[in-house]
Amino acid sequence: MRRKIGTALVAVAISALAIGSLPSVARAIPLPPHRREIKLFDGHGLSNFQRFVKQFGLDHDPDGVFRVEDGNIHISGTEYGYLITKRSFSRFYLRAEFKWGQGTFMDRAGKARDSGILYYVQGPNKIWPRSVEFQVMEGGTGDFWLTDGAALTGKDGKRVTGPPGSAVKIDRFGKGPSQNVTGFRDPVGEVEKPHGDWNLLELVTDGKTVRQYVNGKLVNEGTDPFPSSGKILLQSEGAEVYFRNVSLFPLK
Q1: How far apart are CA 234 and CA 117, in angstroms?
Q2: Fewer CB within 10 A of the terminal residue: the chain, N end or C end?
Q3: Are 58 and 52 in contact (CB under 8 A)?
């Protein structure tokens, strides 16, 4: 009996150490067994990413749309583009923190601030490549977007496929009416913190089920994603935004 109790205590201790390796804010999210953390952004450089700017192409960012400032990724939003990982991933837990800056630009001037984390990205670099998107947008953070042939079955059982060259949305749970204006906050189901505060985004995908969390709350879920592997990107979509603590844990 003592041996069994001792074994159980060791197992609990090992589990606690494993959870302790994750940021404390993420502990409420139940995770499948995972491998060692991959720090996509460690606060110092962008070596795990390539830059893509619509009018200049890959690895050419003369206006500094993507920069590291004070340990954060600063995305100016003044041009359309993204940071895209050099590696592809399939089954993982991803976490990142974001907060909004001030400016809105181009055809999105005066509109709701907009960005996003696109995953399972495949195909040529363009605006926007085939992918599933964790939407980051005032009033819409947590929505799914399916782009350029990407597909997902929503919680309601309906299969949704993004048209070629375009995209289609699956709203987050409990979402209220929206207005496409700068500073908008959902009057019914807002999940973001006040402007200027950091928000935690978490994504768990095992290749079969996809779950998106905002500030510890499950906000969207789907199954059978297509594609089910690919790169990950952070958008510049007409709004100033900051990201930090971007980490990925491959699932076993």
Answers
A1: 5
A2: N
A3: yes
Q: For residues 117 and 233, is the Cβ–Cβ distance under 8 A?
A: yes
For 29-53, the pLDDT digits (tens) are 777 899 999 999 999 999 999 999 9
Q: Are 215 and 199 in contact (CB under 8 A)?
A: yes
Gap between the Cα atoms of 163 and 170, Å rounded: 14
Q: How far apart are CA 78 and CA 7, in angstroms?
A: 57
pLDDT tens for residues 113-123?
999 999 999 99
What pLDDT does residue 5 have? Answer: 34
State yes or no: pLDDT of 10 exceeds 50: no
SS3 50: strand
> Closest Cα to residue 172, out of 205, 207, 213?
213
Specify the CATH number of the domain 31-250: 2.60.120.560
CA distance 70 to 78: 20
- Is residue 43 within 8 A of residue 27, CB to CB? The reply is no
Mean pLDDT, the chain, integer: 91
For residue 100, whether the previous peptide bond is cis, meaning omega lies within 30 degrees of 0, is no
- Residue 89's nearest CA partner among 228, 202, 226 is 228
Structural tokens at position 73: 């990724």
> What's this model's pTM, rounded to 2 decimal places?
0.89
Least confident range from 21-30, 157-166, 180-189, 223-232: namely 21-30
Assigned token pair, 97: 């923190």
Q: How many residues does the chain have?
A: 252
Predicted confidence at residue 30, as pLDDT, reads: 77
Q: Whose CA is closest to 99, among 21, 187, 213, 214?
A: 214
Between CA 245 and CA 100 the distance in angstroms is 15
